[in-house]
Write a structure and sequence with these properties.
By secondary structure, the chain is of the alpha/beta class. Helices cover 40% and strands 15% of the residues. A 7-stranded mixed β-sheet has the order 1-9-8-7-6-2-3, with helices on both faces. The protein has a 5-stranded antiparallel β-sheet with strand order 10-11-14-13-12, covered by helices on one side. The chain has a two-stranded antiparallel ribbon with strand order 4-5. The chain is globular, with a radius of gyration of 21 Å. It binds pyridoxal-5'-phosphate. Pyridoxal-5'-phosphate (PLP) binds next to helix 4. The site of pyridoxal-5'-phosphate has 12 residues, from helix 4.
Length: 415
């Protein structure tokens, strides 16, 4: 690393000193919450015992559900290694709650890209519209340089359409340019809906877990992936739901079958990593958010536009940087890859990913395939050549990754 970059790195870190402290404070509060739940649930080594077959009376599985419920502040939870990814969890949840002729109403515009195959139109693949469920939405309102939920539109929709069964909120930004909603803002939607009708409030909670001192627990269902925040970098795979008893029960009937729900499911050796990952999660999320804040600070000093800004709150683990050219975007991703523990020797190339209009470049040198609580970066090759950056199991390795990415980007400016 050049002396110049070293000096810049020190300045970048200095500029966010207060913020780094605040992130550690949040991690401490969340760790206290996790430890207290472990104690209350009498977690012991017997919970690591593996089950096979039907998995009846798997005490580890039961205690994991109970831990998630207590930590997320909900009545019940359902956590399974057998949920393939976040999209799968969200789809199970929606199919569990929605019935033919119901409306799914999103207050955060379109749902996450991969979920649109499930929600948006008849495709003959068994989408929600194939079963007679309609998707409707209102957009977030942009005002005074910020965003807010369009409560007028939501109130009007709830009044006019009695068959809105699920009101949907995406907490994190996903692949959009908007900021992430706070847990309070999501809870406000829940209170608003519950004061007016029986609709369930459903939250895509991906990337938000443990970023704040609370979760949006007044919703009926929160769903997410274990290879993101709550798996703490140690869960091998899986997904979770936390929410009301009633909603969790309905979702459990979709996860397996009506009448059986969450009473079965072999855990085939996964309990220890899920429990240990949950223990680590507040700390790991803090490492990822520190890395995001450092990236924001460094690339702001280098003259790039970042979101959140270094001083803005990070309500999830994502940072975006507008790199301006395809060359700089690819260089950044190659740098992240070169600064990763796994596959540091490979060089990522842009490719035509199914479902995307432009080629996408991705960097991920992770212990768990595709895990994005580990340092990873990706972005579509189109203006403003924005990279989406997330994760890092340790702040130190995250910093090395970001600095390596900066070196690669600066290299493109020389030539
Ligand atoms: C990651 C993510 C998902 C789910 O993605 P998977 O790749 O299927 O795990 C859904 N919504 C948001 C906002 C996400 O960030």
């Amino acid at each position: 690393m050049t002396e110049e970059l070293k000096a810049l790195s020190a300045r970048a870190e200095e500029a966010i000193a207060d913020k780094l402290k605040k992130i550690d404070e949040t991690a401490l509060i969340n760790t206290e919450k996790v430890l207290s739940a472990f104690k209350n649930n009498r977690v012991s080594a017997t919970h690591f015992v593996s089950s096979d077959g039907y998995g009846y009376d798997d005490r580890g599985r039961e205690v994991i559900d109970s831990l998630y419920a207590e930590i997320f502040g909900t009545e019940a939870a359902l956590v399974r290694h057998s949920i393939a990814n976040g999209t799968h969890a969200l789809a199970i949840g929606l199919f569990g709650l929605l019935r033919p002729s119901d409306i799914l109403y999103s207050v955060t515009g379109d749902v996450y890209d991969t979920l649109q195959n499930v929600t948006n139109k008849k495709n003959g693949e068994g989408s929600l519209p194939d079963y007679g469920v309609t998707f409707e939405k209102c957009e977030l309102i942009e005002e005074k340089g910020d965003i807010r939920i369009d409560f007028d539109a939501l109130g009007k929709a709830l009044k006019e359409k009695k068959n809105i069964k699920v009101v949907y909120v995406q907490r994190s930004r996903g692949y959009t340019g908007r900021r992430t909603l706070s847990a309070d803002e999501v809870n406000e939607v829940a209170d608003f809906v519950h004061a007016r009708c029986d609709a369930y409030v459903f939250v895509d909670n991906c990337y938000g877990e443990f970023a704040e001192e609370k979760e949006p627990n007044r919703a009926d269902i929160l769903a997410g992936s274990l290879i993101k925040n709550p798996g703490g970098g140690l869960a091998d795979c899986g997904g979770y739901f936390a929410g009301t008893k009633k909603a969790i029960e309905l979702v459990s009937y979709r996860l397996t079958v009506p009448g059986i729900g969450g009473e079965v499911g072999a855990t085939i050796g996964q309990n220890r990593n899920i429990i240990r990952g949950l223990f680590m999660a507040p700390h790991t999320v803090a490492q990822a958010i520190k890395t995001a804040a450092f990236a924001a600070s460094l690339f702001t000093l280098l003259g790039y536009k970042t979101s959140p800004l270094p001083t803005e709150p990070h309500r999830d683990i994502i940072e975006t940087i507008e790199l301006g050219t395809a060359e700089a975007l690819c260089a950044f991703c190659r740098g992240i890859q070169a600064g990763s523990p796994i596959d540091a020797f490979v060089s990522p190339e842009p490719w035509e990913m199914p479902g995307y209009d432009d080629p996408v470049i991705m960097a991920a040198g992770t212990f768990v395939g595709g895990s994005s609580i580990e340092l990873s970066a990706d972005g579509p090759l189109r203006a403003p050549y924005r990279v989406y950056l997330q994760g890092a199991l340790t702040y130190e390795s995250g910093k090395v990754g970001i600095l390596t990415a900066a070196e690669h980007v600066l290299e493109t400016k020389k030539s």
